[in-house]
Amino acid sequence: MIQLNNSIFRTIGEIADEQGVKAYVIGGFVRDYYLHRECKDIDVVVIGSGIAIAEILAEKVKSKVSIFKNFGTAMLRYKDMEIEFVGARKESYRKDSRKPVVEDGTLEDDQNRRDFTVNAMAFALNKENYGELLDPFKGMKDLDAGILRTPLDPDITFSDDPLRMIRAVRFATQLDFEIAPETFEAIKRNRERISIVSKERITTELDKIIMSKKPSKGFLLFDKCGLLELIFPELSALKGVEVIKGKAHKDNFFHTLKVLDNVAEKSDELWLRWAALLHDIAKPRTKAWEESIGWTFHGHEVVGAKMVKNIFRSMKLPMNEKMKYVQKLVLLHLRPIALSQEEVTDSAVRRLLFEAGDDIDDLMTLCEADITSGNNAKVRIYMRNFEVVRTKLKEIEEKDRIRNFQPPIDGGLIMKTYNLPPCSIVGEIKSAIKEAILDGKIENDYEQAYALMEKLAETMIPKELKS
């Protein structure tokens, strides 16, 4: 017996007793209770109608209940918790679908259908055995050993619902567990079944892996079991080292995972971590051998930024500002590195600030994470130079207000001043003013910009167009 201190569990148990049914907390909450991890998602299984218990509870705690009759589930929020109720069920599967045929079942049936032994444990909520642990598959033993294994035959488990293969990798990464050898071998055997799982469901799991403490573990497991090339072929293509005349390039797959881990140590921003994962994604497409230089990846940042859109589309990631943010960081990720290797001019810093805008700090975090050399002296030099770049960025920003700036002279003013129709000359004058500010020839100031506009107009606007 354990002591479930939250009063909501007592209340659910009392309702279950009044209704003459059995109720249990099952799954992630039980697992995380023993791991001392916070868990706000509570799954309650009822031997009977979970919806009925949820409706009574919602009335008692003055909460709104959402009912999903097609799935036989109900969900309500209580304080900072989300509680989902479902009737105990057993499931069977068709070969071409991961959607089960569901029938009413016992607690044992419900535990049988769980993905892993550590997720099949349950706490009783009825008064007669409140807090009793029901653990038919020795989940506690696996929890203590840090092992993930399926309750039943893993080949059947993964063939029935192939998403569980991705979830195995996700839990192994989040919890820093190992996947039991027989379970891992079953993932290898059934990996092709992943084709029946929707991209959205896979990407949801990928996001959770990316947001874990050390996300590289998940992608290494995907590679080892053969899932990586099926769910993320562009990342898989980064693997390997080619040697010509004794010269080898680095393995861009392992480098990318190191960059991702480095970013994970510094930031909890999901999309910055995605940018880390994709920053070198175009290297296989741009790899070339040049006799005088060796291996090159010219333009991989430009090609990579273009690839981001297709990757986001195929993986059902949001095609919005999040995608544009990742594109921007992939496109610009070499710029601070180039700056750190040469004299840091005000002009170069202004241009970087202008292009990166409010994402400049995230860009610098990515670039620092991108230094993965095993040569510690080389790393120290890079990091010292990056500090110079950061200092210069701060100085220029305070002095020139370049971040996200709009030139003080816009096209409308140019057309109005010289009575011009929309034409290329207007854009050329506006661009020249912007370049002059970025080069430091004039300040980001209206009067100086206006004076330059007048000077440019004298030579750029033909007499016949002037009013």
Task: Please outline the helices and strands.
Elements: H1 7-19, E1 23-26, H2 28-35, E2 41-46, H3 50-61, E3 65-68, E4 73-78, E5 81-87, E6 89-92, E7 101-104, H4 107-112, E8 122-124, E9 133-134, H5 139-145, E10 147-148, H6 154-160, H7 163-175, E11 178-179, H8 181-190, H9 199-210, H10 216-225, H11 228-231, H12 233-236, E12 243-244, E13 247-248, H13 252-266, H14 270-278, H15 283-286, E14 288-290, E15 294-296, H16 300-314, H17 321-332, H18 335-340, H19 346-356, H20 360-369, H21 376-400, H22 411-418, H23 424-438, H24 446-460
Helix pairs in contact: 6-8, 7-9, 7-10, 13-14, 14-17, 16-17, 19-21, 23-24
What does this structure look like?
The protein has helices at residues 7-19, 28-35, 50-61, 107-112, 139-145, 154-160, 163-175, 181-190, 199-210, 216-225, 228-231, 233-236, 252-266, 270-278, 283-286, 300-314, 321-332, 335-340, 346-356, 360-369, 376-400, 411-418, 424-438, 446-460; strands spanning 23-26, 41-46, 65-68, 73-78, 81-87, 89-92, 101-104, 122-124, 133-134, 147-148, 178-179, 243-244, 247-248, 288-290, 294-296. Helix 13 (252-266) runs antiparallel to helix 14 (270-278) and helix 16 (300-314) packs antiparallel against helix 17. With 467 residues, it is of the alpha+beta class. A 7-stranded mixed β-sheet has the order 3-4-5-2-1-8-9. A two-stranded antiparallel ribbon has the order 6-7. The protein is built from 24 helices and 15 strands. It is elongated and about 95 Å long.
